[in-house]
TrEMBL record:
Residues 583-613 are annotated as: Disordered. This is Phosphatase. Residues 599-611 have a biased composition (Basic and acidic residues). Signal peptide: none annotated. It comes from Arthrobacter pigmenti.
Amino acid sequence: KRGGGKSKLAFTPIDPVDALVDDFTVPDGYSWRTVIRWGDPLFRNSPGFDANNQTAAAQELQFGYNCDYTDIIEIPGSKGRRAVLFANHEYTNENIMFPPEMPAEEVRATARAAHGLSVVELVRKNKNAPWTYVVGGRLNRRFLMETPYELTGPAAGTEFVKTIDDPSGRTILGTLGNCAGGTTPWGTILSGEENFNGYFVTPGTSDADRRYGLTPSPTGRRWEIDDPRFDTRNAGYANEANRFGYIVEVDPFDPTSTPKKHSMLGRFKHEGANVIVADDGRVVAYSGDDERFDYLYKFVSRNKVRKGNTPADRRANMNLLSEGSLYVARFQGNSVPEIDGTGSLPTDGAFDGVGEWLPLIINNRSAVPGMTTAEVAVFTRLAADKVGPTKMDRAEDVEPNLHTGKVYVACTNNTNRGVGSNTPVDEANPRTRNRDGHVVEITENGGDQTSTRFTWNLLLVCGDPSTNASTYFGGYPADKVSPISCPDNLAFDSAGNLWISTDGQPGTIGYCDGLFRVTLEGRERGRVDQFLAVPRDGETCGPIIHDDEQNVFVAVQHPGEEGSWGAHTSLFPDYVPEWSAPKRGEGALPRPSVIQVFPDERKRQGDDKPGRG
Ligand code: FEO
Ligand code: CA
Ligand code: CA
Ligand code: CA
């Protein structure tokens, strides 16, 4: 057990798990159990999960589907025994969720109710023990497609976001495509609206429609049949799609609060957003646009964070993301990239160079000729196109390391890079047909998070080094790392190690997706150790690393996605621990879940069933 610097979380890396294995694999000496599953009841009046008879009315009172971002925040004064769990619900897999005889209208309504967000209280017997969720917890909340969100920033109240249902242009119902996210220093949750375009039928004729992938084709879920706002050709709804694609902010400690959508951070396929406080007290948020050949963004607030935790301080801090400046990144290499198929480093021995944050909005004013501030906020991709940023290989999670201020960007893959007339390689995106992805490390000039200049290098060029010569692991010997492909979500442990969860390994290196620790500092920089693997067809999300307690949490998204009703390829998670055996009728189908991993000896400290609020 080495690597990981000073972290208390010691483990022997697991071997990669074959892509067809339906199991949740953890290191020797560790156990796992669910925190909460799709369909688990949240409120005292919630029906229990019933695989064969799910309804929209039941689902509205139950935990949603396909979590991506999660965090667990201890409730102050609880001595580590109570916490609040946040989880978002990115999308649904109707083919494996519902029996084929279920009426289409009921499928649509139930799947729609499985979207959104959840906040759930957790309890445990003592600090470090496994958590149990609380049915009827005071903070428990479901955010549905009918939940109102306050639109803030330059887009609020403008002609671009008004509809027949919201003539003020300030109140939006629902959130879509929530993917990664971040927890702010003031204790709120940010969540990114990513693939919102897939929920709308539009004319598809404008530059904006084309740039955002909005088309006249029927959507996959056909919500437009039941609700006219999902077809923007309907009278009064021309702007409905302009009301999605933002960073959402939620206060998990106030179940009556109105969540926000912050247009100052721009509108695109936000993977997520992560905040760091600059030395002068302003806050800086980083966010990637997860689309092939799209961009990396940074927001700098106008106002400074308040350190207190009074209601007035929290209110002020929840306005920080409404005013400020928005930038988009341009990367400049300093040598010729040569990795394309050869495995060699660039001519100067490193993928690295300098970069610049190009302004789109400066102090609430548009910096883009010919576009108003509101236009930049709503049509951010069109604005960015005008200033010449670097087209990236799908920037997923972007997260600053609070120990060093360095910023990490997971570029998950881009198989179109350099193919045909597509954009060729550059030093920051050096691989033609980039199947395995890479991780960029950014250092802001002078350690000033608000700087408009930075230096950068590639920390990882991912893949299986045993079969792929074009991999790089921060200079660490490639034959001593766990193979890793398609980096997606990022997190840090208390010792400042980077943790990466993956999405797509089965299709690239033939292994189940998983969670990996990357040592960043010292002689083992670039060392990659696999901690866990998720079941067949699943994606690893979350993750939460409470290494000081030796607890790790992940959300297993879309297990068994490739299967169908009656031919499920995964039965996760109810097939496993004997001390949480499924009830009759349960366990016959995969259920996306939040999972906790902990040392074996704590196995008996957890409860077998939910607590009562
Ligand atoms: Fe929802 Fe970019 O992953
Ligand atoms: Ca270089
Ligand atoms: Ca993702
Ligand atoms: Ca993903």
